[in-house]
Amino acid sequence: MRWSWQIGEIAGIRVQVHATFAILLGWLAIRAWRDEPTLLSVLDGVAFVLAIFACIVLHELGHALTARRFGIRTRDITLLPIGGVARLERMPDDPTQELLVSMAGPAVNAAIAALLWFGLTSLGTPPSLSPETLENLPFLDRLLWVNVVLLVFNLVPAFPMDGGRALRAMLAMRLSFVRATRIAAALGQTLAFAFGAIGLFSNPFLVLIALFVWIGAAAEVSAVETRSALAGLQASDAMLTDFEVLAPSDPLSRAVELTLAGSQKDFPVLEGDVLRGVLTQDALVRGLSARGAGAPVETVMLEAPQPLAARVPAEEALASLNAPARLLPVIDRGQLVGILTADNVLELLRFRAAVEEPPGRGRSRAR
Ligand SMILES: [Zn+2]
């Protein structure tokens, strides 16, 4: 995540804080000073927030280390003012594993609260049961209650928060992955709307969390839908097989003619059987204004992109299309058999979506 600083590494996972976190610390220090203008009160306020965030790091490590048991790595853990985010490479496909990964975080908070409870009780100072006087409680008592709050809050079934992920996993045990995600996301967005409305009148953090949930839920649904729609397809299913090619020595006017005559926007440039480069519409327009219509294609074409094998999964092909060349050559046994553009893949997605839910319900979810 941009604007983040690394503060350490635990179990091989980078832990970083986002710049906005410093603003939160500053704001809390000022508040502590206003309540009680002594250095001790400020230090206590800051130390308490740091202790909370240490618990949040442990919570995220709970997710990350459980995911690792299922062979999924975690890129990093980032602390934001609204909490922590562990960037897992992916979520497990198996609903049981997703349930375990999503519950591991809250379980850590439950364990911390239980440890503090037993520790304080065995020291002869049992924690107070009245959380309404939180501000006046001793440090460790407050920390115990914060962990209870973190536990309860994360269990709210607002997908993509932990409780929502657990709900999606449980739904996915009976329904298709796409349907389970849609239901969980709809509930998540309904709850986000409620959080936002309540937050407007009480706590601005709630509004932030509502936004986070709302955007997160929408993004997850579209990612899951794309993945599911492309499941089982290969690059060769989405590629264009009827296409025009240019020779390196062709003038740019030839590319203009072909563009106007058909619907193709980008062209592979072949010399005999060998792919020499790609002429995208952007490159063509730039070339026309800089060199004129008589300039040979080879002077303005882009370098030939790495070709795709015809059998590459369509999902992977779509990811490769994020390169500067908007066209990828597809080869089979050394021969150019088609070209793939983002437009092709999006068309395919649209058609598949129109044919309603793809096959693969219940446990045999496609991926
Ligand atoms: Zn969590």
Describe, in plain words, how this protein is organized in 3D:
With 367 residues, the chain is an alpha+beta fold. 55% of the residues lie in helices and 15% in strands. The chain has a four-stranded mixed β-sheet. Strands 5-6-7 form a three-stranded antiparallel β-sheet. It has a three-stranded mixed β-sheet with strand order 8-9-10. Helix 2 packs antiparallel against helix 3, helix 3 crosses helix 5 and helix 5 packs antiparallel against helix 6. The longest helix is centred in the first third of the chain and has 31 residues. It is elongated. It starts with a strand and ends in a 13-residue tail after the last helix. The relative contact order is 0.08. The site of zinc ion has 5 residues, from helix 2.
Quick structural summary:
Helix content is 55%, strand content 15%. The chain has helices at 19-35, 39-69, 95-122, 139-155, 162-172, 177-201, 204-230, 235-238, 252-261, 281-291, 314-320, 342-354, and strands at 4-10, 13-18, 74-80, 83-88, 267-271, 274-279, 302-303, 308-309, 327-332, 335-341.
List the helices and strands and how they pair.
Blueprint (H helix, E strand, L loop, with lengths): L3 E7 L2 E6 H17 L3 H31 L4 E7 L2 E6 L6 H28 L16 H17 L6 H11 L4 H25 L2 H27 L4 H4 L13 H10 L5 E5 L2 E6 L1 H11 L10 E2 L4 E2 L4 H7 L6 E6 L2 E7 H13 L13
Parallel strand pairs: 2-3, 8-9
Antiparallel strand pairs: 1-2, 3-4, 5-6, 6-7, 9-10
The structure holds zinc ion.
The site of zinc ion has 5 residues, from helix 2.
